[in-house]
Amino acid sequence: MARRIARVTRIIDGLLLGCVQVSQIRALLSMQVALLVIFGVHTAKAHEAAAEAPIFAEAPCVTVVDKSVRPSVSIAYNIAYDDVMLEAGDIPVEDAKTHQFFAFRGAIFKSGLGLAYFPHDAPSDAGVQLPLWITLADVKRAANASGDADGTGFSEQDVPEGAVLEDTPQLAERWLRIHPDGGRLPITLEQATRPVVWNVSDVPPGLYTVVTYIFSPPWNGWALRPGLVKVVDGTGDGEDAGAAGGADPAAVVDEVDSFVFSYQGRRVGGCLDAAPGTVVRGMMRVDERAEHGWQPWLDATEVSGERFDFCFVNPYPELTGSVRLRFDLEAPDGTTTYSYSPDLLTYLSGSGSCEADEEICCEGVLEALATGDGGVGAVGKAVADAPGADGVGGGPEPASSAECGCRLAGGRPIGSTYGAFGLLALCAQVARRRRKCSRRAKE
Asked: Which CATH topology does 249-412 take?
């Protein structure tokens, strides 16, 4: 193992090209690898994960269902193999290793090892993590069926407060069962040949995300179906249901995960289902600078058609870190919905020239950087003067070519925020950009 770590550190030395102190990265990487070896080996147990998840085919970005015409939605899925046999560590409850389908009125995104909920009818900062248990009755059944002899040793005390869906106040009236707890589905190829039918006749109009709960105690989990289901209650006369009855404007934003420097923009787009005359406004929030909340980056712009595409340029270069984007869609009747990027982009201070590609855009970057007077008006000045996470001024330190922009605002080293492996990926990208700069300088 020591030889492997040494080999990896030599590779890092070649990639960094002076990006940050190599000794710090070596220490971070060595510690992270050591922890993986020690804890990964000694805590390994059989089946420490939920049972087999459903596989969803590509679905329309927004599926519009006029319940006055078609009162049900068919949800097709597949699985890789039958997963019904209990293994070591599984708790032998009657309905272990089953699927149950839910609909949440809002957006659902991957978050860490689980999923997080973001409402469409109000701005949300960080979303709400989906609990891994549905009811207290499930918890009690699992605890009663568990025992030390089979290696499970599970009790009700193992489920912390807030880990049961029916008792999570932030999600109250935000979700519904597509089929009941007593009707959970076995995880078999034969079962997956029959689509799940969601009866929407009594479902309030709105924007829904379908997810599958994997009941596999104690290792429960969730699986996300792509796209939104837009339930409307139109006239039933064949008109476009998406524009009928003041239906909520809907958008599904594309992934934005990437590293972006202050001299670059990030292409961002998404699919759209909204009435003519709908306008969109863009907002941004930096996780590490939560005290500043959501800040505007895109003025009201009319959108139409089935897609929108913009170039995100951070008007507050003092705000660096993990950025989530939000799009506020306002219909002609004033109905407003909030759509979010499903992941985060990493925005960093740096210097260089912008080169457009499939992810990077350059429109408006120079204008944003040349606003003068330290930012973009009052908001920009407030950001620059506000204390950072360490209590000192939040403005970025000037980035020299030796640092290659690998610092966050407030002087925080990236390694302390993103970890060794994220830092390695970042610095590999920085190295490529520095080699480009070097070649241009020679020319």
From this structure: Immunoglobulin-like (2.60.40)
